[in-house]
Protein 1
Amino acid sequence: MPAPTGTETEQQTGALQLLVSGRVQGVGFRPFVHQLACSHQLAGWVRNRTGSVEVHIQGEPGKLCTFTRELLQQAPPLARPRLDRCTPVDPVHIEDFRIRSSDADGAVQVYVPPDLYTCTDCLAELQDPQDRRYRYPFINCTNCGPRYTLIRSLPYDRVNTTMSGFPLCPACRSEYTDPANRRFHAEPVGCPECGPGLEFVQGDATIAGNEAALRACIDALVAGRIVAVKGIGGYHIMCDARNDEAIERLRLHKQRPHKPLAVMFPAPADKPLACITRSMCLSRDQADLLLSPQRPIVLVNRQAGSDISPQVAPGLNEIGIMLPYSPLHHLLLNDLGHPLVATSGNISGEPVLTDNSSVAQRLDHVVDAYLHHNRPIARPADDPVYRIIHDRARPLRTGRGIAPLELELPLMLEQPVIAAGGHMKNTVALAWDNRVVISPHIGDLDNSRSRAVFEQTIADLQSLYGMTATAVICDAHPGYASTHWANNSGLPVHAVLHHHAHAATAFDYSLADTPQLVFAWDGTGHGADGTLWGGEALLGSPGHWQRVASLRPFHLPGGERAGREPWRSAAALCWEAGQDWPGLPAAAGILHQAWQRRLNTPQSSAAGRLFDAAAALTGLCTHASFEGQGPMLLEAAAVDHIDAVDMPLSADATGVLRSDWEPLLQVLMDDRRSSAERAGCLHASLAGSLLAQARAMRTTDGVSHIGLCGGVFQNRLLTGQAVRLLAADGFTVNIPVEIPVNDAGISYGQVLEFACNRNPCG
């Protein structure tokens, strides 16, 4: 058979220009494209653009079709590619396939990758004495390692990261430039010769060198010391999770007497959950969540007889646990062989600390020693926290491994905006077109450092994504720090009611034309009538809410102080109902006089304050050392399957239906019943009142779809009871899955409210 002529050969060659967006940077996508092209004997090139990957591919037309299909179907496990453009072009003279230098073209389709846990290939090398990265605390490849916390700018190239100060040694340079190598263009790559290193500091003594510093840290932890350990997104404060005395010292010096502490467990490569299952009651869902790529903190019940100190979570049976996610954590935990407290390295309420010198200054009164490293952290990212609620994993806090979290909006924005979020559990969101990017957890904006990180995060998001906001959305509460920042930003400001933002996150946009009722229950929020809302039922859709039901209001003595002093809420309920409470503090007489005269006693309808009152009336918590302590203790104590008390439902003068909590008081103050029974009665009664309100709105407005949002629905017992009652009565229920139901979801809800006010959802 004669060989094909030159003309025939050209006719057998096609060429395509592809533009691939989505999560395609920082996840090994370019090496994958190179290997895929070579496996099909195709020529061309691939390069990073700002937020996307461009591919020129040419060869036999059939192989081009296969390549294009497998480009999406066989992408690396952490990639999320989307083919934006596939254009036939003329073939060019090229004989092989190459990876070209990045093109910073200023495009706006930027996707910033989150930090990634250590992959199994790197873990195998970490434990291989023959590997040159054996026991190297910063081992990584294109499939794992830090991303968001070390990227200074995009495109994602080494020169634009905090690794730019670590020149590659010849061996690492060879891997970095070899398209067939797993570390090809792995931007954080390094080794003991050229990469970051450890340093242990205790008092005036400094121990340098990875093995020596690690050994000294382990010796300190074994001796009962408290050590600040630098990780990927910031420092952890660590100590032996079995050592009561060490944990008590940590709590005393950090001024965190009761708030639960997270625990990190060893994870042997062959049986990563073996250590956990010896101490904790682990379900299959919780196990899957612990092993997921995000490697979050997961709330899990401890086993009877567990060796985890009760000081980790006083009064609670549930502990936040996690697995190691960095090579340093793996070395530390596996060498120790037992779990460590791994709480955020910060002053309580502030963002996690990231800088070596700052942590030494700010935590010197808390810790005994430091395990530093010299890889700079560009921005903080605290650990994410999840809980299984109504058979689904739901975030309580977003952070490292998840954030920046990008979601698709149900409609297009006409302008780029920044949503400043709330005051507690703050996150911010940048949104443009139909995209919204939610920051990691920032924290409570009560202190200057939190506010500085808040402002840094707003600037960072706009810089990384190449998008400048032209308007700001904020909470309607005039006293929030985020609201003050918005009003001083120089941009047009759009205020959104707190509970409207909550409700927008629980609205089912696939049913936008159907009436929906959303219950927004939390501790407090500025209401449209100037009172403190928090037990609201809102009918309608984002941008168009009507308050149709709530709880009977009461006046809070001392206003927001009631959040940390649950006895105030208990006193308010009793005074409102004209009942005596023997548990009143001795100094309450003066406060009662102020309450009678309505001095600093704002009106509240908050379900969260009702939980606070119940915690005090049952004797579980009269003074809280952290926000939500009373409700958490109440849930932990409660028994299920307790008969509910009927909470009468009637309309007030404005037509809003009100559930009356007064019949509950007799049960809550009945000390002949156990605290567990009384706590269980509260949960059952509130779930029943929610169902009664839903039924009433079905009668008047034909509602059959319910949303649940607000921090109260972090309560697994209440949420489960409410959903079961609603479902049994023919309702469908929507609860946010990708964002927290608490105030960490407010920034996302603010974007939705803003968008739908200008472009109705239904």
Protein 2
Amino acid sequence: MPNLASLWPNLLYFCIVPCGAVIAGSILLFLILKYYNIELPGGFKFTRRDPPAKDKLATSEKPASAQPPPAPPPAQSIGVQFTDSASMNVNITQGDSISAGGHAIKAEEGAVVIVEAESPQPPTGAAAPTPRVERFIDRGPIMSSVREALRNRAATAVVGVGGMGGVGKTELALFLSKEFNDALWMEVNSRSLEQVQFSLAFALGITLPPNTDADGRAELLRAAFAQQPRTVIFDDVRQGFDLPKCLPPSPPCAVLITSRLRQLPGVRSQDIHSLNVMDEKQAKELLSDEGMKGALEQEPTAGDDLAKLCGYHPLALRLAAARWAQRPAPLSQFNAALTHRLTQLSGPDPKDPTANLRANFDLSYEALTADDRRRFRALAVFAETGFAPAAARAVWNDPHPDADAALTRLLTVSLLQNQSRGEATTARGLSPLPTAERFALHDLLREYALEKLREAKEDEAAYRAHAGLLIEAFGREWNPEKNPQLTIELDNVAEVAEWALMAKDSFVLGSMATTPRNWLMLFDMRDQQMKWASQSLALGIEDKELRANVLSSIGDVHTRLSELPEARARYEEALPIYRAIGAKLGEANCIQRLGDVHTALSELPEARARYEEALPIYRAIGAKLGEANVLSSQGRLLVMSGEGQKGLQTLQDALDLYAAIGDKVGQANIYTARGH
């Protein structure tokens, strides 16, 4: 058996010493790697970490009550450079993390580490933006309705009419937001659903898992809002945005939405309020606030005209005031120069929709499909008083279902105003009309549509289609009392006639002067009628019947003006044309009117002969109104000639005919004649 004492030196040199060296080396290497930055080949890095401070170790052994709270390290403003070349300054405390510039940022040892990009979260907070106006002008009853809804913790919306921004939706929301301490402002416009959801989460102080889908994020947001009830304002919600996936529960939250859309998913139709342009008082108040108070006091009427020129549109009014301030002048002179409103009412940036009317309208127009753009611009042919759905179908040349669907779409995006809510009235003093569907473009938006129509070179076809509709409608109905709804179309007659003047279209111009002649005479539009008729003659009219009608129409105006020789000359020029083409009604009308001229000139035998010539023609063709008119004139003539009894009987015959055909004006005239 070996002697252990003799083996000890060998164990010491060959086993214990090498093992001790390995252990000591390992400890030394560990300490080096722990406390010093070392970079090894292959990209391996070791980061130095300081050992815990002694005072902290000691503090942990003391009772918590004996420890003063440690003072937080001061926040420092540190510049950050992102990989996309963007840069910004952030205030951050060492060891903390914040979100800025769409990234999560952490401060370590005075340096800033960009931990990860947090797309799609944008740098948008919950604070409301600075109002664009110093003083908000109260917009009337809509303010009370929206305020009450918010106080009841409901969801409500403010929609601008006319498809336009700048009518004050955002300013109204900003004003009301100041009344709620818990208001959370969220700008939507062109941002995506994900961006808005992440911004809401950031404002609420919660984290949305990056792999959660839109529905999952919506559930998390609703749960957070239930725990943190807020008044949430979604500004400028546009078409295609999935609003329900951002809406908090209401109650307990209150929600206010501003949009150009009249249908908003998640909001009841009765809770959507239309904000119209300003009224005259509000418009002048705005102009006064914009530095025009003195000018308005000096020229109050010109101030009214300026407000009208701007369509009472808040943005247009502000732009007009800014333009006036650059070169102050008498308001009447300024108004006269404000002819190209869309061009002149613009700000320094032609692409900025908040300071440029055309850019503002572009947002709504460019969101339409190509077909709906065509339809929208064609609506420029209608007057400011608007149009019926049938008129839109005619101008668009669309079948009934397609046209009605298009009208609904244009209403939804607020490019149309619905004028048929409640009872409509005629524009020219007749009794109230029954409610009927009627739509219109806002004045300034109509000017924009007309620009687009002309750019597309579609104006001639659209105006001709509109003219055809008017000729057919007025040609079918001769009596304004029987169809008072047509009265409002006189503005469209004037619109088409003015286009025909510019286009030198004698047929359309002559038709507008003659087809609605009874309406034109009844509503004292003789100056326009004379202008259209005379200009159409000057341009040359190939259609013989239309030429005779135009001559007769001019004779009517001369008769109304008591210019009897001129009237007779025109009737006598028209009569042989009617006879040559066999137009019996035109011939009889012309003869009867010549009889009226003779009566006015006290040429009674000539008048009697004319009436006796016209009466059998009317009876032969069954023209009851013409027959009644002749009998009425004959009765007056007989009374003037001393044949009172016979004259009264003739007037009674005329009265019976007027009653049979429902002509109340004719009946009233007979009663007046009999009274005399």
